[in-house]
Amino acid sequence: MTMREFLLGAIILSIFAMLFEGVVVFRNLKNKLHAYLFLNCITMLVNNTGYLLELLSKTEDGYIAALKFSYAGRAFILFSIIMISAELCHISIPKLLVRALLLIDVFVYAIIFTFQNHNLYYSKIWYDKTGMFPVLLKRAGIVHKAFMQYQAVVIVIVLAMLFRSIKYHKGKIAKRRVFIIIGGFLIASILYLFQIVHVFFITYYFDLTVFGNVAITISMFIAIFRYNLLGVIDMARDYIVDRLSEGVIALDVDDKLQYYNEHAKELYPEITKDPMNVVNTLREAIIRGDTIEIGDKYYTPEEKELSADGEVIGKLYALVDSTVLKQREYQLKSDAAILEMAANSMKERLNATEEILSQDRAMRHDRRHFEALILSLIQNGKLDEAQKCLEERMSQEPRGSRTFCENTTVNAALMHYVAIAERNNIRIKVSANIPHNVGVDEMQLAIAISNLLENAIHACEKVPENERFIEVTSKFKQQLLLEISNSCQGQVKLDEDGHPVTSKEGHGIGTRSVLDFVKKTCSEIRYITGDNTFKVQMLIG
Where is the Sensor histidine kinase NatK-like C-terminal domain (predicted)? Predict the structure, then answer.
């Protein structure tokens, strides 16, 4: 193999390597570092391709056209290297300076593209094809000299930035990654120096900086595939597949944002401007053990360390959709509150009923003796004494021992709330036909009726005493039809489902209990509002 074939083969291999690297970076494109890596791949690919065309050209015009094509990449290589280094070192470059650097490269390329019309870049050129490769010999113009000096200064600054960043990288992998990249840049810098001072004769007809580009490419390859330059993203994506989280955010070991998915951006649009504020919000929620409410959904934040070869290389924050679990939690709490309220209320009613029944049993126990006493008084003509005994006996009869319906459990509830209504000066009328067997659990039915009556009493308490009323009507024919109407203040507001709306904290539990009963028993309910009146109709079972 001749030297010409070796050099051409090396350039062709570098072109394919850069193309492959560009594809890998593009497929992992997610942040600024990856964008500048991709730009570097493209600029070097264009540069080396153009230079290959220069070496293979047959005419001066063909060489010049290939030169201009090559510089379309070469003029911007340094800009991409500056930006990559800044991202690796976590250095923020002002936007104005970034634009200035870009404008310098654009200006230089414009000068190169039109170099045949002036002597700013090349003061003199002549085409020579007598050597191993054709070459355009030239003398540097003022812009060329300034651009070379600019490149030398930038290379020194970039290397200084990279060396300085070593002490700020905490992990061994991160440090090795920086050393590998520095090695590639050092080789490129040395070859660049050899080229501009013509240390070797070969530099007069072959550009050694092409191999400097190859060195940088190889160092990036090693950094990517051996030292996880793009590894945080790959691991984050694996975690997404494993956990199916709604939002995912990945940081490197220096707490710098490396990745976020579309769900995270939708949940936190500000992540593009202030990512650490979002991350701190998640960290605080994790420490407190809180869920995060966003819109009508709930998310549980989780933190996971990302490691490679036993070393931590970053952290991943996942927002797991826990809306269903949270809704179930709230439902359980609501059900518990309803059951506690219902149990306390029913205990009250049962105690009241037990007291009434106890009084009734005691009176029945001595009724036989009482009746014998009255008969004896009448037989002895002591009518006044008999009347007095009867009056005393009647005053001892329990007021609550009224029967409103056959169903004893529901009757106990009706007795309890009728007594409460009467104590609050509410006119209450009950016409209830509720048999023993109503087709649903009688305790649940009693609780539902109790909640409706309690709501009706609360509504009546807000209106003047002379306007207070409650009417309870029920009829049974295969199904139980219940209607409760009462006075109220103004017109009760209903929601879109036709259910009463309450804005006061702690209220509405009774209504939710009734609606839960309706759902469980496949019943139907209807609320009807009017001016100062409210009516509930239920078809039960």
Answer: 443-540
Would you state the structure tokens that stand for residue 463, as one six-digit string? 């209106």
For tokens 């594809």, the residue is: 23
Q: Where are the beta strands (DSSP E) in 151-271?
A: 247-252, 257-260
Domain 244-324 has CATH 3.30.450: yes
Least confident range from 13-27, 153-167, 221-235: namely: 221-235
Query: Who has greater pLDDT, 1 or 123?
Result: 123
The architecture in CATH of the region 408-540 reads 2-Layer Sandwich (3.30)
Quick one: tokens of 256?
């710098």
State the span(s) of the chain assigned CATH 3.30.450.
244-324
The mean pLDDT of 391-408, rounded to a whole number, is 70
Residues with Cβ within 8 Å of residue 210, at least 6 apart in sequence: 11, 14, 47, 48, 51
The pLDDT tens digits of the residues spanning 190-241 come to: 888 888 777 777 777 778 887 887 787 778 777 766 666 655 554 455 444 4
Q: Where does the chain hold its CATH 1.20.1070.10 domain(s)?
A: 3-230
Mean pLDDT, to the nearest integer, of 310-339? 74
- Superfamily classification of domain 3-230: Rhodopsin 7-helix transmembrane proteins (1.20.1070.10)
Sequence-distant (6+) residues with CB within 8 A of 58 are 134
Alpha helix stretches (DSSP H) within 205-322: 209-225, 231-243, 262-267, 275-288
25-54: average pLDDT: 86
Torsion of Cα atoms, 254 then 257 then 259 then 260, to 10°: 140
Strand partners, 538: 482, 525
The pLDDT value recorded for residue 497 is 85
Angle at 174 between CA 263 and CA 245, to 5 degrees: 20
288 with 222: CB under 8 angstroms?
no
Q: What is the pLDDT of residues 45-68, one digit of tens each?
A: 999 999 999 999 989 999 999 999
